[in-house]
Amino acid sequence: xxxxxxxxxxxxxxxSGVVGLPRGxxxxxxxxxxxxxxLTGIFGAALSLIEGGAAARYTWHIPSGTIAxxxxxLAAFFLFPVFVIGGLGALxxxxxxxxxxxxxxxxxxxxxxxxxxxxxxxxxxxxxxWSFLVGWEIVGVSGFFLVTTEQEPEAxxxxxxxxxxxxxxxxxxFAMFGLLHNATGTWQLTRSSALAHSxxxxxxxxxxxxxxxxxxxxxxxxxxxxxxxxxxxxxVSAILSGVVLKLGIYGFVRVLWLVGAYPxxxxxxxFILGIVSGVLGVIFALAQHDLKRLLAYHSIENIGIILxxxxxxxLGQATGHHALAVLGFAGGLLHVWNHATFKxxxxxxxxxxxxxxxxxxxxALGGLLRPMRVTGIAFxxxxxxxxxxxxxxxxxxxxxxxxxxxxxxxxxxxxxxxxGLAAPALALIxxxxxxxxxxxxxxxFLGTSRSDIGNPHDATLSMQAAMVPLGxxxxxxxxxxxxxxxxxxxxxxxLTGETSGAAVASALAPLTPIASLxxxxxxxxxxxxxxxxxxxxxxPTWDCGYAQPTARMQYTSSSFAQPLVRLFSWVLLPVxxxxxxxxxxxxxxKFHTHVPDPVLDRLLLPGIRRTKHFMRIARxxxxxxxxxxxxxxxxxxxxxxxxxxx
Length: 646
What we know:
- Helix content is 71%, strand content 3%.
- It is built from 25 helices and four strands.
- The protein has helices at residues 2-16, 28-51, 73-96, 106-125, 129-147, 153-184, 193-196, 201-216, 225-231, 234-259, 264-286, 291-319, 322-357, 373-386, 393-411, 416-419, 422-445, 461-479, 481-496, 501-508, 511-532, 557-567, 569-572, 600-621, 626-644; strands at residues 56-62, 65-71, 575-577, 592-594.
- A two-stranded antiparallel sheet has the order 1-2. Strands 3-4 form a two-stranded antiparallel sheet.
- The longest helix is centred in the middle third of the chain and has 36 residues, at 322-357.
- The mean pLDDT is 84.
């Protein structure tokens, strides 16, 4: 029954993409069908998590082998964000990318959005390597067409970088699955005792780190992520960040489950990659002037937090510390849900800002909270959640990782010094995230407009209907962490091999009264301020001697972040466009800064440009005549014969 529901859901969301393709067909029909498929999938995934235990499995024998579809608690756990974000994204797209405003691209976007959702479902319920790779490839190709929806130079550049990256990851996965087949003798994704003792395990894990790390956006394999998230339509950015990145996490977690035995070096590598991605992701986010690009680097940051959890869990299992493994895996997996929720909410709110103002440039915005009340509140909720502040959901998963770090230090485990770094690393990430989102929210929504952005208005009803449920989920998990812990524990149990629900629930028990008390204090303070402070008469603001203050006198995002950018300039290496020396009668001057991506802009693209010189040399010998190529072959053979006879 569970597999049937998920198969129906997969087919439904795939079909929803082609419904309404002919001109004049009702475009709303595809959204209704997509939502119906996602609701069916949520019901099926919920049944699988509630039942737990043995996996539901369906096999189909074909001449060259067996195709298998499998749903276990791990797959069901990762399917939830697919259906929630996939369904809400289709609803959001009704207002954000309507056919009336985008009649040339709306049908294309719906088509590949449905295909992307279906590909994600197929990859996560795949029970064999080939089914997984088919779903993986559907996601990759669909993502390319979604990123390049607008066919503008920026979008095309981002799309091609994404496509090249995802196929580089596919090559690594082909090699990984080949080694898995060599070690187990089957293409089925089932646990095998032979695999844990195979000499190929180390190479399998390395290939998994590369292939799935590219998809997940782990630094330094993140080259496609900032470009694609910024250029894509906002609800596409939401599903890329909230769900497609998690396909990389799911793939690696599935490989962990397949092997069953975790070496210490793997946990160390995951932990270090997590800290590097988390810290550098938030540092580069601080320096961004593009609102969506800022959110993109925060995706790298949160993938880093997930990897910190997986690294702690792997180290706990490898060293025999069950409590450490439980806290690490539960915290990392719960952050998968939390990040999907608040990051989709932030992208939806950012999309509403872009939709009404026509710009993503933070320094061109301002004063949007009054005309965009719902959008502003949604962005604020997402910002508080992503910073890991109570009483919202981001704090819950990070709390488990804090506890893991403290427990490792208190118990004096063999990896205490390493795991103990989790607490200061998370504290640094959280503090920088607070600074970044204070900048983003205050510059975009407070003050007055810094440019002519017309008459901004709030998001449409369909866009608001997509944002509100995500905000409620952020609050709900923060107020009732025990419920989320019960679900997360079912997935974590597959990795630890033992029941972990009670341990996670006890770790989260203090959070509910703390969160409830905090909300009561906030509400009471707001009421007291409203009741006790009398209404003040309106007077002009003291202008500090400026007779005519203008919007240009406000802080910009660049000036707000400048002290922190200067502090981390040794990492960011900002490029500054300095103003020319002033003359007696100066002309208008411009000052701007830009922070190139450390891998794509500073390493890969310059390296590719340098290869053009080698290509010019190659043209000398590529003359286009068969006779010349035959001479090359004969000379090569003679050299090889001479070398072999030595």
